[in-house]
Amino acid sequence: MNPNCIVLVGLSGSGKSTVGELVARKLGWQFVDTDAMVEEAAGIPVAHIFSREGEAAFRSRERTALAEATARDNVVVATGGGAVTSAEGRDLIGRGFVVWLVVSPERAAGRLQANPDTEERPLLEGDAAGRLRRLLEERRAFYELADAAVDVDALTPEQSAAEVVNLWREARGQATAGRRRFGAEEFDSTGQHGPAVAAVVRTAHTQYPVIVQPGVLGELGAVCRERGLRGRAFVVSDTVVGPLYLEASLDTLRDSGFAAHGFTIPSGEEHKTLGTVQLVYDWLLSERVERSDFVVCLGGGVVTDLGGFAAATCLRGIDFVHVPTSLLAMVDASVGGKTGVDHPLGKNLIGAFAQPRAVLIDTRLLDTLPRRQLVEGWAEVIKHGLILDEGLVLDLEEGAGNPRAMVSPDLIARSVAIKAAVVSEDEREAGQRTLLNYGHTIGHAIEAVAGYGTYLHGEAVAVGMHAAGIISVELGLLTPGELERQQRLLAAYGLPERVQGVDIEAVLTATLSDKKVRAGSVRWVLLEGIGRAVVREGVPDDVVRKAARAVLQ
User: Fold this and answer.
1) Has 383 been annotated as catalytic?
2) FRET pair for 24, CA 20 to 30 Å: which of 388, 390, 527, 548?
3) Ramachandran angles phi, psi of 503, nearest 5°
4) pTM, full prediction
5) Which of 419, 466, 482, 516 is the catalytic position?
6) Which H, E and C letters describe 23-74, residue by residue?
7) Is 419 a catalytic residue?
């Protein structure tokens, strides 16, 4: 079985396509629908294939689509309701982790009839519920061969998707027990890999793995080789992380045959400037860097952002790999290809979109992270749940109270997968990626006004989320109870609700330098429920000012 392929089976109307898309988004994977693949290949709708060629011809086309879909890696496949009826079809479906979406015939018929976009289904003519009951009895024995089942009648699509992901994670943990570590697993430039890959970011021009595994720093050199990197390695770190992990990074690169060199920049957000980028340029150019060489960014968010920007612009762009060492950088800065530096007028206003060749997240590196830096990282993990995944919020609530004890490769992988899925859909923040800025409008303004480094990024974002939540309540999008729930969770992880000594007027002015501003109007990321974020323009000034007064003292 391919552990990185999930196949959904079940009756028409069980929600395989809707749930499949949500599962793929949570995991940062690709989603395919075999009916859509058949239609694309044939150039006509499924109903026409049935009427012109017959069901046998359709099933043959369907098996061809199944063979192609299940041969892929990092894919969620929604199958037709009858795909399980042939032995060949079942064999192809069995390549992946198979989940049966169990739905009552009555509920399935109601869903199909309520959807005006659902094309006429050739096997459901007449009494749809009755026909579905007969089909269920005919196919039940085949559906029951699935690896897992989810009863979707009483669940929302989001809840069903979360359950599918949880079942897959549980099965993966059982299936991979005793397997070799990542360094011995299959992984090459085509994207094939073992279970340590938490997500794959796919953009229009590239794709790359995000690897989450304790001890994976020791595999840095091997991963770089497997990703096709061949030149010299230039490792950029900072004065805090460098003494801890720079030599180990250079050793693993040299063990894999790379000529490797290291350089440290001053630590701290206040050094995330063009002046520091100039230091990196000077070093690279003095070493006669070539376009075949690559940079390794070893550090927290400052190093990943700044080092990535230096690599993206030196010689008009050379490859780079991220090895984040803080929780914040692991779940946020290292994934998605945003690189850049701060400007006195605002955070991250100078930069470029450039994707790394790989991201290696070694959770053991968090053992040496100071508590304050660990706590700030939880702000981004919590944010991911608040905007897109209530299931993650529930898990965070269950473990609240001990931020260090909650650190786990699985939880980090889940957060990373959310970010990777959003980035894969919207690389340059033209649409859904904007949602990742929940809490950042006020948060970035606080950082700029207070002076970079006064408040850590995660601390400022937590306060920004409080302000955005207040705005959401004032606009009738969020209930007061839901805002209280958000604040309880943030407080449980040691994050602040408010900051002191920051001028309100200066913060409000600074929000106008936010990257999301359009035609002088701030586009606010708000919540319309836990796990559901929206973007709103034209928020009244008095509402914004009320929220700012509540969080700035």
Assistant:
1) no
2) 527
3) -70, 125
4) 0.68
5) 419
6) HHHHHCCEEEEHHHHHHHHHCCCHHHHHHHHCHHHHHHHHHHHHHHHHCCCC
7) yes
121 is catalytic: no
Catalytic hit among 59, 63, 338, 414: 338
Q: Catalytic: which of 444, 459, 466, 516? A: 444
Q: Is residue 466 annotated as part of the catalytic site, yes or no?
A: no
Is residue 437 annotated as part of the catalytic site, yes or no?
A: yes
Q: Where in the chain is the domain with CATH 1.20.1090.10?
A: 422-551
Which of these is catalytic: 26, 433, 466, 516? 433
380 is catalytic: yes
Residues of the chain with CATH 3.40.50.300: 5-175
Helices 371-388 + 409-425 axis angle, to 10: 50
- Mind listing the pLDDT tens digit of every residue in the chain (553 residues)? 778 899 999 999 999 999 999 999 888 889 999 999 988 888 888 778 877 877 788 888 899 999 999 999 889 999 998 899 888 889 899 999 999 999 998 888 888 776 644 444 544 555 778 889 888 988 888 898 899 999 988 788 888 998 898 889 888 765 433 332 222 233 333 333 333 688 888 888 888 999 999 999 999 999 999 999 999 999 999 999 999 999 999 999 999 999 999 999 999 999 999 999 999 999 999 999 999 999 999 999 999 999 999 999 999 999 999 999 999 999 999 999 999 999 988 889 999 999 999 999 999 999 999 999 999 999 999 999 999 988 889 989 988 877 887 888 888 988 998 898 889 888 888 788 899 999 999 999 999 999 988 999 999 999 999 999 999 999 999 999 999 999 999 999 999 999 999 999 999 999 988 766 766 689 999 999 999 999 999 999 999 999 999 999 7
- Homologous superfamily of domain range 5-175: P-loop containing nucleotide triphosphate hydrolases (3.40.50.300)
Based on the residue annotation, tell me whether 338 is a catalytic residue of this protein. yes
Which of 429, 447, 459, 482 is labelled catalytic? 429
